[in-house]
Amino acid sequence: MKKVYVIGIGAGDPSDLTLRAIEAMRAVDVFFFMDKDGAGKENLIAFRQEVLTRAVPEASYRSVHATSPERPKDGRDYEKGIDWWRGERRRIFREMLSELGPEETGGFLIIGDPALYDGTTQILHELAAEGFEIDFEVVTGITSLQTLAARHRIPLNRIGEEITVTTARLLAETEPEKISNTLVMLDGRATFLHFKETDLYIYWGAYLGMEEEILIAGPLKEKADEIAETIETSRARQGWIMDAYLLRRP
């Protein structure tokens, strides 16, 4: 049976790679990459390559690349679009994994942690359910949310309060009074502006772990416009942006 590691490699700093991740990477014969088109692709490729160079300096592996289908935008047919997108990714995964020999070990490098905001493990489960013979192991990584908290020197939890991790799409539908400790990933559209007139506090970060890292924190009333402007100027300068933030009651 084919063996595959799904390896979390951290948010953007190769130094955050865990010892377990390094061990798994050194056991891999074939790395599989789902490359994204568009701006920012070069940065992500460079990050993955630096991680590989540090962890497997002898380069005793080969690589299989495929282009990831574009994730559908929010809209009326969003759920149908997601179903199509997942189906395309499943088809591509099956084709890539067919490149793996019977005695070889494969590996997927996942930015952040495979358990959070990534569908690789779910696709592998679906392939196994369809009869594709594969055994896989998940190796945890440091998430952008952990990096965000570390950079701002705050705990994510507070005594007696829940933590919510959500998307910008769902945040926009949330009533302000229901926000206490809410973490948002990959917004890029300044959805927090919906709550600008509340008493919420924001801890925001972009390009976390990378040289381009930006951090801003403070009362949302005072910082919302500054962060929104930073998002636009950074996207214009870099061609892309990856951000995360925590909205919290004071």
Automatic annotation (TrEMBL):
Q: In which pathway does it act?
A: Cofactor biosynthesis; adenosylcobalamin biosynthesis
Q: Which GO-annotated molecular functions does the record name?
A: precorrin-6A synthase (deacetylating) activity
Cite the CDD domains for this sequence. Answer: Precorrin-6A-synthase
Enzyme Commission code(s) on record: 2.1.1.152
The record ties this protein, via SUPFAM superfamilies, to:
Tetrapyrrole methylase
Catalysis: reaction(s): precorrin-5 + S-adenosyl-L-methionine + H2O = precorrin-6A + acetate + S-adenosyl-L-homocysteine + 2 H(+)
Q: Which InterPro entries match?
A: 4pyrrol_Mease, 4pyrrol_Methylase_sf, 4pyrrole_Mease_sub1, 4pyrrole_Mease_sub2, CobF
Q: What's a single GO BP term from this record?
A: cobalamin biosynthetic process
PANTHER family per the record? COBALT-PRECORRIN-2 C(20)-METHYLTRANSFERASE, PRECORRIN-6A SYNTHASE [DEACETYLATING]
Q: What is this protein called?
A: Precorrin-6A synthase [deacetylating]
Q: Which organism is it from?
A: Afifella marina DSM 2698
